[in-house]
Amino acid sequence: MDTLRQFIQYAYANAPAVKAILDGANLSPDDIQAVADLDRIPVTSKDRLVELQQADPPFGGFLAVPFEEIQHVFFSPGPLYEPHAGESAVTDTVREMLAIAGFEAGEVVINTFGYHLIPTGLAIDQALRDTGAKVIPAGVGNADLQIKMMRDLGVTGYVGTPSWLMALIQKAEEMGLDFGQLSLRKALVSAEPLPPDLRQTFVEKYGLRVTNAYGTAELGFLAYDTEGSLPMRLLETSIIQVANPETGEPVTSGAVGEVVVTTFNETYPLIRLGTGDLAMNVDPAPGQSRQSERSIILVGRVGDAVKVRGMFVHPNQLRFALGRIPGVAGFQALITRPENRDQFTLRVALVEEAADRETLVAALSTAIQSACRVKVDQFEFVSADDFDEGAQIILDERNW
């Protein structure tokens, strides 16, 4: 593992936060000679990453290149700033994932991931173009226009969330089109769960080759499934571990732990970053298997954050957003999933029942979308008595 040894040496020398983490654990870079030695390094949670950035803005001591070399600064809920300086760490995971999904030179691909503030859309765009594909930078929205472009340009590939793919199919059928007669043949979906019945619809009814991928904005893609099975095979671009959330030690095969990732990112070296995702470790030959032979089964979140339409929403984000709007006595977010699409309902209790609700809804919508980058689908006004002191801020009633 020369690459790991060299990277630890580099990160220790160039990123003050990495040096502080190793020094705090009484470790030197020479102590990390193999993947197994990583277990000695404490896991850094995303909440801790937020704290470090707040204490040492803007990057918490993880920036390992001169500030002048930065090309992009992305933003994730937390808030977290993510510097990019032309390094290949995230894009490498995308290239590997696109190859597994079968994307080739000459494809015409509609990329419906966001290009705004998050790196996903841009990273996929770059990797697709590097393969020789033509890219439509669509994002989400304007379904009728996207269908027209898919027809006119002979789109062969889709990249985005499964729910938006289903929305496009439904829009095409509303327009009187036979979606199966379009040129689309393959889809790489991610950022939200893919229910088995929805995948079956894509494959059997519409003839699509579907690859389901798991990843995070700052780490790129981590695991995937091409067959509709529950386990997701791990990529080898990063070092991926499943660790006990309390101790940081690796869990045995069949046990559940937190997905912990070390990425070879020369700009922003994240070593043993806890994703906050809980997964079952599936290892066919413990101690002998390659990472690409191992799988994970995602089972939930370590903390209170809930992923809604591909974005994590944390109670603190809602508290922050609604705290700026006068007249709110209490609130609760309700997440459901009718017709394979996440629905975000906000229940609101008012200080004064006679308040202008239309104006309040507009203000709340803007504040929440700004803080969480997720649109509220519906508002319900209820009595303040409906909110107990210990009531959950986010109530997730989805069944997967």
Average of the residue pLDDT scores:
93
CATH class of the largest domain: Alpha Beta
Structural class: alpha/beta
Could you say which overall geometry the principal axes of the C-alpha atoms support?
A: globular
Counted up, domains total: 3
Quaternary arrangement of the chains shown? single chain
Q: Could you tell me the strand content as a percent range? A: 25-35%
Q: CATH H level of the largest domain: which superfamily?
A: ANL, N-terminal domain
How many β strands by DSSP?
A: 20
Tell me which CATH architecture of the largest domain applies here. 3-Layer(aba) Sandwich
| Straight-line N-to-C gap | 39 Å
The biggest sheet, with number of strands, parallel, antiparallel or mixed sense and barrel status, is: 12 strands, mixed
Q: Helix proportion of residues, in percent?
A: 25-40%
Named CATH topology of the largest domain: Rossmann fold
**Total helix count?**
10
Name the helix and strand elements from N-terminus to C-terminus, one letter apiece. HHEHEEHEHEHEHEHEEEEEEEEEHEEHEE
- CA-atom Rg in angstroms: 22 Å
Give the uncertain stretches in residue-range form. Answer: none
Structural notes for this entry:
This protein is of the alpha/beta class. The chain folds into three domains: 2-86 and 230-301, 3-Layer(aba) Sandwich (Rossmann fold); 89-225, Rossmann fold, CATH 3.40.50; 306-396, 2-Layer Sandwich (GMP Synthetase, Chain A, domain 3). The protein has ten helices and 20 strands. It has helices spanning 2-14, 16-24, 46-55, 89-101, 120-130, 143-153, 162-174, 196-205, 315-323, 357-372; strands spanning 44-45, 72-76, 80-84, 108-111, 134-137, 157-160, 186-189, 209-216, 220-225, 232-234, 239-243, 256-262, 273-282, 295-301, 306-308, 311-313, 328-336, 343-350, 378-382, 394-396. The strands form four sheets. Strands 1, 4, 5, 6, 7, 8, 9, 10, 11, 12, 13 and 14 form a twelve-stranded mixed beta sheet that branches. Strands 19-18-17-20 form a four-stranded mixed beta sheet, covered by helices on one side. A hairpin with a 3-residue loop joins strand 8 (209-216) and strand 9 (220-225). The model has no long low-confidence stretch (mean pLDDT 93).
